[in-house]
Each structure stands twice: as C-alpha cells, then as structure tokens.
Hints:
Blueprint (H helix, E strand, L loop, with lengths): L12 E2 L7 E3 L2 H29 L5 E2 L2 E9 L18 E6 L7 H15 L3 E9 L14 H5 L20 H4 L10 E2 L5 H15 L9 E5 L2 H16 L7 E4 L3 E4 L19 E5 L6 E5 L4 H11 L6 E10 L9 E10 L17 H15 L10 E9 L10 H9 L2 E5 L2 H11 L3 E9 L9 H27 L3 H4 L14
Parallel strand pairs: 1-3, 5-7, 8-12, 8-13, 13-17, 14-15, 15-16
Antiparallel strand pairs: 2-6, 4-5, 4-6, 9-10, 9-11, 11-12, 13-16, 14-17
Amino acid sequence: xxxxxxxxxxxxxxxxxxxxxxxxxxxxxxxxxxxxxxxxxxxxxxxxxxxxxxxxxxxxxxxxxxxxxxxxxxxxxxxxxxxxxxxxxxxxxxxxxxxxxxxxxxxxxxxxxxxxxxxxxxxxxxxxxxxxxxxxxxxxxxxxxxxxxxxxxxxxxxxxxxxxxxxxxxxxxxxxxxxxxxxxxxxxxxxxxxxxxxxxxxxxxxxxxxxxxxxxxxxxxxxxxxxxxxxxxxxxxxxxxxxxxxxxxxxxxxxxxxxxxxxxxxxxxxxxxxxxxxxxxxxxxxxxxxxxxxxxxxxxxxxxxxxxxxxxxxxxxxxxxxxxxxxxxxxxxxxxxxxxxxxxxxxxxxxxxxxxxxxxxxxxxxxxxxxxxxxxxxxxxxxxxxxxxxxxxxxxxxxxxxxxxxxxxxxxxxxxxxxxxxxxxxxxxxxxxxxxxxxxxxxxxxxxxxxxxxxxxxxxxxxxxxxxxxxxxxxxxxxxxxxxxxxxxxxxxxxxxxxx
Length: 500
C-alpha cells in the first residue's frame, strides 16, 4: 500500500500518493478522472481499515480526500438565458467535491459538458481538501461487527476521519453559504459528504440501493397505491417490459423485462420505514414509487435524501379531506397553491416564501387526467378541481374546537387538507426539484362524510388504479420532454450553483 503525506492535508496522516491536477476539455474524460481518483481514495481507506483491524492497533492515522471539479471565469459574458442551470452566475472560481462518480456518471457528464460548452473553457480535476469519512468509504448497507473495533488500542475516530456536520448541512442549497475570503464559490448544491450521508440513509429507509432510483418519483401515503404499482410493474415485466428494463422491490430484488419474478434473492423479513419500488429504464428516466406513510416528518425526511440524486420531478399521489360540499368522494384535487402548517420546514424555508405551481408539471398532470379518464375541457370539472391544498401536522384536528381552523381554511380558499403535500412541494422548491400534487378525496369531515370500513374498501377498489395510472402517465409525459424544459427557472434564486 503506497502512501505519502498529502501536500494539502495534515502531514500527521498517511494518505494516497498525491495526484497532479489535470485540465479537461472533454466531459467524459473529466468524469473518468473523477472516478479514478475516488476509487483510489476509497480503496486506500478500505485497505487501511482492514490492516488496522487485523493488527489490532494503529501506529499511524489515515486520511483520503474526495476528488473535486473546479472551473474559473473572469467574464460577465451571458450564456443561453433560457437554461435554468449549466452556467456560472458571475466571475470567480467555483469548485464542487464529488462522491460516487460511478453512480452520478451520467449527471456529472451532462453538467460538466454544459460548463465547458457555455463558458468555452476547461475544467480542472484533482484532489480536494475535504477528507472522506471512513463510514462513507464502504458501500451502502455494509455491516461491520462492532466488537472488532473494540479490540483497537484507541478510538477508531483517532485513526480515521468521521462525518463532519460542518460539511453535511444544507447551507448551499438554502442560500446561506458565504465563502470566506479566498475561498471558492459552490459549483454544486450539495457537498460530497452531504450526498454520502443521504445515500446511506436512502438504503436504510427504503431497503433499496440508490443506484435503483429513477429520475421521476411518485410519493404516496397509502399501501394500496404500492400494491397497484407492483401489480402493474409485474405485468409489464411479464409482457417484455413495455419500455422498462426491470422492476426492483425492497431487498434489491430485481425482476428483469421478460421475467415473471426475480431470478434470485429474498424479500426482507420486515419492510423498512419508507419502502421504495423502482420501474427502471436504461436511461434512468423510469419511475420510482415510495410509500412515505403518514405525516410531514416522513415527507421531509425522504425528500431531503432523494434530492441529492437530482431527480427531474416528483409528484405526490395521496388521499385528502375534501373541504367543499360540492366535492364527491373520489374526486381529484390538482394543487396550484399550498397552505403550509406542517412546521417541519419552517427553519429552512420561511412561511412567507410562496410555493408556486409549475406549469410543466401542472400541464402534464391535467393531460394525464384527460387521457386516463376520457374527459376533457369543461367536462373535466365534474371530477377534478384545481385549488389550494392545506397541509397540517395534526391528524386529529377535527377533535379541536373547529371554529378557528375552519375559518382559516375558508380564508385561504383551500379545497383539500392533508399531511404531506405542501411539505413535498416546499422541499421540491427548496431543492430545485420540479414538484406537483394530485390528490383524491377520501372523506369530507366538515360535511359529516367519514370513511366507514365498507365504504373505504369500495372507494379504494374504484379509484386507486385510475389515480395511480394518472400519476404514472404524467411522469411519462414529462420524461418525454428535454430535461432543460422540465427544470423551471422559477426555482432559481439570485446566485445559483451551476450544477442542476
């Protein structure tokens, strides 16, 4: 294991042989170098960790660094202003630490190619000064016997780097990051450590590897939708895939196109907190469905982590309380505004920030409703209303004195109430991920129409399949659009990162 003290790091650590920084005018070649540097660093940490465990002691400390991409510009020249990403906001030096370039190869190649094309200059690839925590040097889901580390003569964190909260927060994407004098500006919305943290959390929460996640995501708060999604996906696989290459379920069980079931593997003994299911396409433009369960906390948690994968869109499909007497059970609600009383994002996104409807998503959803139901124009109003959705964090709000909450809901012109939609939309706004909401009215508490067991069964049988097909069709319509058209400039702030 050849090592040399890293010239940019702490000389008391052993590190991989320092690599010269290289300039690239070709995005594919730049990403290949990122992959080489990253593989070298994680191999060094893995080998060092195994050697320390085998010896039971460590005479040295070990450190390896994330690779980074850098570009600088001294001009204010304008680029194609129609693009929501792919260009630098002002002259200066910009860098981004990179993790898992194998997983993000397609994304990195696209983003770097846009920079080279739009600014007419090369990018620089080399080692950063940000250490890779030992925890993130191993694949997601890796298991280590804690008793092995206890055999060491000193704490493991004295030998290897551990995750640093200073490098895993959301200051960049929240717009709170201010570089110190001489420090470069951010090229990407997330640091490498922040991405690594979420990749490992995704495996934990969904029981599927991040590599299976697709660019278009459906969230639901009911298992009925997942059951229907699985049935449709298995039918597609049995019929040759119908444009999809495989279907992945928790436990990373993959049924390839043309097969009836996964060729090998076992389902997990128990489902994770938010199981994910992936209808995959070779280009990554398939559909991922996640059952987030009930409540804004889960909605924020899962979108915090999926955001690092830089999806092209996510949509909430769920049930809601209809607030208007003119609504019927089974009617659809297309959200065009949100009342946020979920509270989980108050510290990250102030309540005075409006969450706008995005035309690209709204049009796709409405067109999908028309295609699946066969209704259009004025006739569509029989089954769907467009309006404000209120999201709250108290499932039993009906048990309070209703005068005050009902008055506020009326003043807001809300037509539906749930516990997840505004959270998902607000986090989409915060993370620059196009978002949308299509809900189905399952009860009307203000008008005495509560679900009884028999009513619920009939309702679910009638509406779940249609509702799911609408959501899937809407995402398929967006996947047929160029990605630069899906990503709206509405989501960009004054000084944005160049990477989408």
